[in-house]
Write the structure tokens for this entry.
Amino acid sequence: MKNTNTVVVNVGRLMEICVRARFRSVDDVENQRWLISQALDKLPPTQSVVIAADWRWCELMTQAAANALGPMIGSFNARIERSAVIASATSPIALLQFLRVVRETNHPARRVFEDHKEMIAYLAPVLTPEERERLAIFLQA
């Protein structure tokens, strides 16, 4: 898992997205689109997902990558029930960029968090007990 981006659904409809390779280029964003599409293709077409995304390793993106990321993420809005991103607070400028990217997806149920407990509290109401347990494990990684 080191230095790669992953997208998996291990339990129920909880989509786990881990961004360790970062988004340095538009190609990185397009690769992420492919990963998300592959994960969604394994679910029934009418199945919505709850996303838990770990961007704690992601640094400030190039302008081109940031400009491509919001529309790419937003292209999946119809399949997203709720989405949460956890980011590191070590780079306030990167955090502001992530907030802008998520806002540009135009999905009212997407949020960025710096604290994993707040992220869990946001996602928990729409998760099953098994999905909540898996979310806690995912965020420990």
About this structure: The two ends are 10 Å apart (CA to CA). The mean pLDDT is 94. The CA atoms of residues 77 and 107 lie 6 Å apart.
